[in-house]
Amino acid sequence: MLQAIGLTSAPRRGLPAAVDDLTLEARPGRVTALLGASGSGKTAALRLMLELDPGRGITYFRGRPLHRIPHPAREVGVLLGDIPGHPARTARGQLRMLCAAAGVSVARADEVLDAVGLAGLGDRRIGALSPGMDRRLALASALLGDPHALVLDDPAEGLSPREAGWLHELLRAHAARGGTVLYTTTDPREAARNAHRVITIDGGRLVADQGVDEFSRTRLRPRVAVRTPHAARLAAVVSREARVARRSVEVVTEAGGRLSVYGSTCAEIGDTAFRHGLPVHQLADEIGDTGSTAPAEPTRAMESAVPVEPAGATGRERPISPARAISDEGLMSHADRTARANPTGLGGATRPAVAASSGGPATPAVSVENGGPGLSRPTVRASSPALPPPIGRRPARGPLHPLRYELRRMFGVRTTLLVMAVVMVLSAGLSVLLAHTGQTPLPKMLAAWPSLLPLPPAAVGAGILGALSFGDEFRYPALAVGRGAIPRRPGLLLAKLAVSAGVAVVLALAVVLLSAEALRVVYGPDLIDIPPNSVSLYVGWVGLVVGCAWAGLLAAGIFRVATGGVAAVLAVPVLVAPLVRKALSAGPGSRSTVGLPGRLRELVWPSWPHEMDRWVAAAVRLVAHPVGGALSLSLSVLVCAYLFTGLHGRVRWRS
Questions:
Q1: CA-CA distance, 581 to 592, in Å (whole number)?
Q2: Quick one: pLDDT at residue 383?
Q3: Burial letters 116-137, b for 16+ CB under 10 A, else e
Q4: Residue 342: DSSP 8-state
Q5: Whole-prediction pTM value?
Q6: pLDDT surpasses 90 at 540
C-alpha cells in the first residue's frame, strides 16, 4: 500500500506550485497509472513521495514514511530517468556495485539480469547499450532489493512497442505477486491497456481517480482518423450527411489536414469521400482521448470521510482538503496516522477525523451546529487548521557494505589498472635515465623522482586515483537516484580512504621493486646498495604517496570534480611547498629540534622503547621536509574544508 497525503511542492519565487495538495493511493496487487500531460506535476509528485524535493505532505509505504524505513531499497524500487553509471563499467559490474550499496547478495545481480532479459549481456559496457537495454538495466537496478513497491517515472519512454509490452507484463507480474506498482505516463491509451487504476492530474492537482473500466468509458472512445488535403470540405460534407440521416456524428478538425470523426466508421467516411471526389491519404480506426474529465462523485474511499467547512457568505458548504484534515506527524501516534490515511479502516466504516492538540487530549474535529429549527449540519472548528508535515530533502543513505562497494567501484573499470601500469612503466624508464647520469642518489632513483619534477610519477598517479574515487561518484551518482550527489557518510569516506591508501601502498612498493629490477637488468646488481636507513626511507616514501592519494580524494569530494582533486595534488609542491620552505628557512635566530624524542618520552606516562626514538625522529624529519610539511598542511586544510562542507550540506538538506 502506498498512500500520499497532501503533497505540496515548495513553489519557486513567482511561480505556482508544481504539486498542489495532491492525495492519492496505490493498492497492492494493482498497477496504478499516474496520468498527465508533460508539465502536469507527475515527476514532481514522485520526487515528493521519495523525499527528494522539499515541500509538505507525507507518503506512507505500508504504513511507514520513507525516512523511517531502515533499508529503503528493499521496500521501494525507484526509476527516475536513466540510472547513471560509468560508461566503461559492465552491466553486471554496475549491478554488483549496487548490490553492495543495498546490502543484498551479489548473486541477486545475475537474477535481475535474467528477469529483465539481459542475461547474455552482463559483460556489455554501459556505454554500448542501446536505449532499450539501458532502460532494462535501470529497471534491474530498481528490482535489486526485491522491493514491495515500484515507483517508476515514465518507464516505457524511448522503448519500442514490443519492449513496452514486455515492460508492462513485468509490472503486472510484480503486482500479481502482491506488490504495489505506481508509474507515470502521458498516454491515456497506454494507461487504459496496462493499468488497473488510473489517477489523472493536471497542474499538480487531482482531476480523477478511476478504475480502468470507468476511465475507458469516460475518457476514451473509438474514432476514425482521416488525413486529406481537403479537410474542411470533407468535414462539412460528413456533418451535413449526418444531420440529414439524423445520426450522432462529431467531426473535430486538427492541424495538418487531419480529421477525427466520432460516431462513424471507416467505410462510411470512405464512401462519402468517394462520392464527392475528395482524395483521402489516411483512413484508420483509433481510440481517441476526450480530455481530462473528473467524475461527478468522488470514487476514492478516502474522500468519503472528508469533513466540510460551515457555509459562509456563499451559503454553500465547502469540503476541506485531505491535507488540512491531517495533523503534524510528530503530534500523532502511528495508529492515528494510519487511521487518518485510511479513514474507512479495514471494514469500510467511516471514522471521524480528529485534530490533535499539544495542550490537551485530542478532541473530535466534527461537531453539530444548529442551522435553524430542526436543522443541523456537521461543521469543523477552523480555529487552528492543521498543515501537512514538511518534507525535508534528506541526505541519501550510504552503502550498507561500504568497503565492498568501494572495491567494486574502483576495480570495476580499467582506469585504475591503466593508471597503475602507466605509472610503473614511466617510473622504470625514469630510473634508468637517472642512473645513467650518475648524479642522483639511490633513493631518488628507485622512486623515479628527478629534480625537475615537483612530484614523482607514483605520487601523481596515486593522487589521480584518489581524485577519481570521489570525482566519478559525483559524475555518476550510483548511490542516490535523482539526488545529483552522493551522500557524505563517514563509513563511505573511511572505505574510500582505506582503499585508496591500500592502492597507493601497492603502487609505491611496485614502483620501487620494478625500478630496482630495471636498474639490475640494465646496469648490473652492483648499483643496488641498500642504505642503513632503508626502512625509514620507505616509510617516508609510502607516506608521500598515500598523502597524495588522500589529498586528491578529499579535494575531489570538496569540489565535486576529479580535476579539482588532481589540481590540489599538484598544488602541494608547486604552491604550498615554496611557502613552507620559506617559513622553515634557517635564520640567525633559528632553533634546533635535537632531543625532541627524549623530551616527548618525558611527557608520556607509559614510556615507549628507545627504538621508538628513531621513528619519532624520522617523522619529524619527514614533516620538516618542505614537500612533507606542505602535504601535511594541505591535508589538514582539506580535512577541515571537507567537514565544513559536509556539515553545511546536511544543514541545507534538513532545512
A1: 16
A2: 44
A3: bbbeebbebbbeebeebbbbbb
A4: S
A5: 0.73
A6: no
